[in-house]
Amino acid sequence: MNVRVTSLLTFEDCPRRFFAENILGLKVPSAAADIGTAIHTVAERWYKEGKNFPGFKKAAEDEIKKFPDTLNIENVIEIAGLAKKFISVYGEGGFDYQVIPEIRLQIPVGRHTVSGQMDALFMPLFPGMPAKIVDLKTGRNRAVTKQLAIYAFLVVKSFGGIHDVLTRYEWVRLNEKDEYHYSEKHLIEIELWINQQVKQIDKALRKGEEGFTCNPGHVCAYCGYAQQCPATSGDYNPPVEDSIEDLAELPTSPELLTSEMAEKYASRLLALQGKVKQIENVLKIWTEKHGPLVIGDQAMGKFEKASQRQFDVKKVIERCQERGLNPLEYITLSSTAAKKLERKIDLEGCYTEKPSPPTWSIKKVETVGLESTVNTVKETVEILAEDEKAVPEQPTVSSLVKDFGVFLKGVEAPQEALENVRVAYRCSESGKYDETFWDALMSAVAWQGLQNEKAQEIAYMIQQIENVAQAG
């Protein structure tokens, strides 16, 4: 199966929508999408047809005839005008680059292929220079995705001698741009992400329609397939995850809670929060269509909020001065306003750090100061070592996975097994011991020709990794 770059991103957002578009072949009419297609085609015709190009207005008129359900004569001026903006990009190559508009690249990934079509690829004519990619956007939602990073990966894999890629989103309606630089080192994570997405798609294909789960959220309100989707019609039953074993009654005193029990309760809490969030998202969509729900003395829906006062700061300062008051005692700079101001001036030395008291919450591991905690532990160990009381360094999950990979390489494991270990190692480095981590680890040992004594060593190493992961 050939999977387009945009389809990979769709699968990440909602597998069910991917199923509707790529398996069932459903197409929802979209004027915005058709305008974008028409603009790209007109610009491409200008580049390829040269003297035979009929002019932007005539080319735009030709294009709207292809989309009678969504476009009409009123769209001609808009299409022609934005196409003229497009072609200005083609002249950026100068004497150092060859410009290739609307180029499609395709690479094999597992049993499938991944392809992407770039609006403009600039290939260097001299060695050592980076390739360039420009992706022209006609929308107004300035959202940034992995699209350019995947395009850069396709270029590096498709052309020898290319090690760096400069990329740019060109927002033609907004007259703005976002630029990114990718080297081979930066694209390692993208390669892992692509491989993982394709594996998940392959896994879903083997299960059939039920393998493509719904991911209800705020984007459902803008999805063309929402009316046919079971998640928004109320007929959706999310797949049941591997159940957590029944928990004992929660002790009245936290001191009676063991580490193992705490981990199980935490896992159950996260699972329940996920279910609650999913229910909330579906109910938000339902109430937007049908109005608020009243359950007992509680109401759910979108309600008007009390109006908020917007103060004119200049007038407030003048009023304070009239009354002999110091306005600085009453007016403060919010953190949001400070961030905007820092984009224009340097505020270093204009503030003091005020520590906030810790509050109980659930956050991503990497956002809660894990690195600084580790550094503190290392400093403590160094001090103890100076006093000849050093504590031997405990193995981490990532160090054990790394040793495991070295072991597999030593016993001449196949390349696919080593690739799976790399995926597991990347997960362990970020502290993510999720399904992706364990699937990669187990896949790394699923190969033929393994001697019995080596299999026993592998089993021991896997057990070590599992013990440390659970303890952490």
From TrEMBL:
Assigned keywords, A-Z: ATP-binding, DNA damage, DNA repair, DNA-binding, Helicase, Hydrolase, Nucleotide-binding
Q: Which GO molecular function entries does the Swiss-Prot or TrEMBL record give?
A: ATP binding; DNA binding; helicase activity; hydrolase activity
User: Where are the membrane-spanning stretches?
Assistant: none
The record, for InterPro entries, names: PDDEXK-like_dom_sf (IPR011604), PDDEXK_AddAB-type (IPR038726)
Look up the record and give one Gene Ontology term from the biological process aspect. Answer: DNA repair
Q: Where does the source fall among the domains of life?
A: Bacteria
Keyword Transferase included in the entry's annotation: no
Domain PD-(D/E)XK endonuclease-like spans what residues?
5-230
Does the UniProt entry include the keyword DNA damage?
yes
Q: Provide the protein name.
A: PD-(D/E)XK nuclease family protein
**Source organism:** Heliorestis acidaminivorans
From the broadest rank down, the organism's phylogenetic lineage runs: Bacteria, Bacillati, Bacillota, Clostridia, Eubacteriales
